[in-house]
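Quick one: Large ribosomal subunit protein bL35 from Compostimonas suwonensis, structure tokens please.
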Amino acid sequence: MPKQKTHSGAKKRFKVTGSGKVMKQQAGMRHNLEVKSSKRKRRLNQEQVLAPADAKVIKTLLGK
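--- reply ---
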């Protein structure tokens, strides 16, 4: 049986940590940045842990 290919879109958007959690970039940092406060921009710029139900799907796309 052939190998499963990694989903190209998923590998650009998610990464798996050493403990197996799936990390994603928080939404909302693409535009209208002059309106947002520095505190809000700092919070949005951090990576976020994906919900367990979503993480299961993403791990299959990443082949992990």
